[in-house]
Amino acid sequence: MRLSVHHKLPVIEGSVLLAAVLRTNVFLSVLIVFPILFSLIGLKWGDLGFVDRAWYTSVVIAYAVLEVPRLIMGMNGNKERSVSSLIGFVTLSLTFHIGIMAVYHAMVPRKNSLDYAISTVEIILAGAEVLLAIVEIRKMVRQNTVNFYVSLGMDV
Fold first, then answer.
1. Are 132 and 125 in contact (CB under 8 A)?
2. Which positions, given as ranges, span the membrane (predicted)?
3. CA-wise closest residue to 67 among 35, 116, 112, 33
4. I need a surface site. Which of 8, 50, 75, 95 has the fewest CB within 10 A?
5. Which residue has the higher pLDDT, 44 or 92?
6. φ, ψ dihedrals at 111, nearest 5°
7. Within 10 A of 48 (CB to CB), how many other CB atoms are there?
8. Cβ-count burial of 66 within 10 angstroms (0-12 exposed, 13-18 middle, 19+ buried)?
9. pLDDT tens readout for residues 5-55
10. Rounded-to-5 percentages of helix, strand, coil across the chain
11. Beta partners for 4?
12. What pLDDT score does 91 carry?
């Protein structure tokens, strides 16, 4: 009989590639994407109707609100090798982040090349983050499995 037990180890080592992609995305989000998106709100505000303003503003605010916890979950999950944090990171990335960027890419009115560039780069980075996080989760689960062999009264 074989039992598998999954546990959290306090070992501090994570994927170097995932850390590099996450740090690149933090740099890109904080120093480039947030200022550009919020300045584009000001530039486009006068040209947009009420519904278009609501779409654009809600997409930008949803991105700003969800991006910070998503990146924190990814950084902490990778650093602490926490499977649950990385699963939360992958879930947020697949459901909300890529969805918000796809809506931004498809439905935001009066797009310019900067809008296309931001959404495309964010979708590509999120895809890379998800793939690297899934590989890291598989690796962690495989390494953190303890095999117990139970003898039921017979000598092996």
1. no
2. 20-42, 54-73, 85-104, 116-135
3. 33
4. 50
5. 92
6. -75, 150
7. 17
8. middle
9. 555 554 446 788 888 999 998 898 888 888 888 787 777 777 888 888 888
10. 75, 5, 15
11. 147
12. 93
Length in residues, the chain: 156
Residue 155 burial (CB < 10 Å; 0-12/13-18/19+)? exposed
Asked if residues 100 and 63 have their Cβ atoms less than 8 Å apart, the reply is: yes
CA pair distance 92, 146, nearest whole angstrom: 29
Q: Which amino acid is at 67?
A: E
Look at the pTM and tell me if it is higher than 0.85.
Answer: no
Most confident of 28-37, 76-85, 95-104, 124-133: 124-133
* pLDDT of the residue at 80: 83
Q: Which two tokens stand for residue 21?
A: 């992609």
List, in sequence order, every residue forming a beta bridge with 5; answer none if it has no partner: 146
Terminal alpha carbon distance of the chain: 12
SS (H, E, C) 133-149: HHHHHHHHHHHCEEEEE
Instruction: Answer with the residue of higher pLDDT: 1 or 126.
Output: 126
Structure tokens at 46: 């006068």
Two structure tokens written together for 107: 């439905």
